[in-house]
Amino acid sequence: MDDHLTEPVDRTQVLARIAVWTAEPPTESSPPNTSGTPAELDGLPAEAIADIADAFAASTPENLGRLRTTLGAGDFDAARLLAHRLKGSCATVGAARAAGLCQEIEAAASARRQRTARDDVPLPAVLTRLADEMRRATQELRSRC
Predict the structure, then answer these.
(1) Taking Cα atoms as reference points, which of 119, 121, 141 lies closest to residue 129?
(2) Whether the predicted pLDDT of 108 surpasses 60
(3) Separation between Cα atoms, residue 131 and residue 101, nearest integer Å
(4) Helix 11-22 to helix 76-92 angle, to the nearest 10 degrees?
(5) Domains of the chain: which residue ranges?
(6) pLDDT tens track for 66-101
(7) CATH class of 11-143
(8) pLDDT tens per residue across span 30-72
(9) Are 59 and 13 in contact (CB under 8 A)?
(10) What is the rounded CA–CA span in Å between residue 83 and residue 121?
């Protein structure tokens, strides 16, 4: 295996990387991935996808809570890092809309940290949409099992 994860290690990312490295390689005759499933999950057994969905769902409340707390405390550097990490987790499981919302939070936190305030981004509303998208992504993942 030639891969790495950055610290702090997120369980969802670990499971996703394990699934990638233990999946059967596609054969030459495999059709291209047109399912909308991320390449990391394409072709995985239902049990592996269920494990990834469970890990993603289990980590969601804590991750969102920490993001709300850091933003509420004005710790925009920590919020930016959390949003960045969460964006990666969302992208790994194919939650593109959630990853986009994380990118929006990351950019707003970075701007506020640098005092180039982007108050046009209503962070509480974005966090609510992010929570909804993460629930939807978990349901979608579980429907693939």
Answers:
(1) 121
(2) yes
(3) 10
(4) 30
(5) 11-143
(6) 999 999 999 999 999 999 999 999 998 889 999 999
(7) mainly alpha
(8) 444 444 556 667 778 888 888 989 999 999 999 999 999 999 9
(9) no
(10) 14
